[in-house]
Amino acid sequence: MAEGEGRTGLIALPVAVLLLALLTVWVVVFSREDGGGQAIDDADDLVAATSTAPSSRPGELAEVWRAPAVAAAIDGVGARATRLWVHEDTVTLVSTAGVTGYGTVDGERLWAAEAPPGAGRPCAAADTINSAGTGAVLWTAGAGEEGCSVLGVLDTATGDLLWSERFGGPVTAEETTVTVGEQTVTVNLDAAGTVGAFHRFAADTGEELPLPAPPEDSAWDCVSGRETVNVHHAGSRIAVLTRCDDAPELSVYHADTGQLEWTHPAADAGFAVTGILAGDPVLLLQDHEVVAYSETGDELWRLPAVELNPRVSAVAGEALVTRYSSTSFTGYGLVGGERLWQAELPENTELYGVDATGEPVLGHSDSGAGLLRLLRLDPATGADTPVGTLPLDPRRAADTRHVAWDANQLYVLAPVERDGTTGLRLRAFER
């Protein structure tokens, strides 16, 4: 080989390698900035994005798209901010990294919501949105601050901030409860249901609405006037405890209209409401018991609170489905409170909600296989039906996930890890 040819080869080879590297970086950066659903940012993504070979894993759901991972907190306070909402052609991801909307068809990033003026990062959010796609998020009071005291209400179709409200005083994410109704947004800033921590707003305009007025019934007029003791809310109901001449009264209102649905005096002078498990039907936490009420306010049944986990419970069909122990779920009849069934499931099983069929959707990780196994439970019998499996990052297989769905797809938000850094990745799978 001639001397000139040798020099040309020595120069051409590193140039070609450099050009290939630059092209690879350009593809990654472009796909991230474009917000598309197939951004490749680690070796696992490269295999998943380029392989067309069918999976050999039985029952594995087909992945439709994946969004770029976001650097968001996944544990502790960060988990309080994490939500996944689906409305029409948009799936909204709420995390400590912000609020972003993705197209349900291809995972393309549609919008990134701006925080309310002066606010920091999301710190809590409503579990669900309403039928118009309105969602509610609480942000920290400012950059570097931990107080969870700025409410922002969003249109999830566009990402537009409809209105916001800043609350005073120290507020922690663990204490807050936010619900979005068809007409109102309701917020409790402490778990005790303190009257001053309760706020109710018109969902479209942000106009603050008053606390529902105490009942006025000549059957037990109050000489000294009624005093509101505490307020709790869940779903479409607000439960208010008042005292009439030191005698406790329980009243339940519709959250949207503020209309009184029923009220009655409590027989026990020490009667106290410590929380609300569900609004339809009304299930209240009263000291160490869960008490169910009919539409007219008659007590239906009560159970020791130790028999269920309020944080892992859902009303499905004619049953209250709840975690009973670390390895079992139980269904209780809504009318009589009787135990209908008990299902033994893996210890790390999570409850994701109730689908359009009225069946609870649950899942548990199989760390050995690196899979999330999804299933449905029959609320009447507890019989389980496999839904399918999907792959997990094996390094984060034991972490909590969020699952949402529409008529065609499942949306799974799961922690991922790369080079020791954790974040969240949203993926869509065929149902």
Task: Give your account of this protein's structure.
Residues 151-363 form the Pyrrolo-quinoline quinone repeat domain. InterPro entries: PQQ_rpt_dom, Quinoprotein_ADH-like_sf, WD40/YVTN_repeat-like_dom_sf. This is PQQ-binding-like beta-propeller repeat protein. The chain crosses the membrane at residues 9-29. Keywords: Membrane, Transmembrane, Transmembrane helix. The protein has 431 residues and is mostly beta strands. It has helices spanning 3-34, 43-50, 77-81; strands spanning 63-66, 83-87, 90-95, 98-103, 109-112, 122-125, 134-140, 148-155, 160-166, 177-180, 184-188, 198-202, 208-209, 226-234, 237-244, 247-254, 260-265, 275-279, 282-286, 289-293, 299-304, 313-316, 319-325, 328-333, 339-344, 350-354, 360-366, 371-377, 384-391, 402-405, 409-418, 421-430. The strands form eight sheets. It has a four-stranded antiparallel beta sheet, with no helix packed on it. Strands 2-3-4-5 form a four-stranded antiparallel beta sheet. It has a four-stranded antiparallel beta sheet with strand order 6-7-8-9. A hairpin with a 6-residue loop joins strand 28 and strand 29. The longest helix is centred in the first third of the chain and has 32 residues, at 3-34. Mean pLDDT is 84; it is low at 1-58.
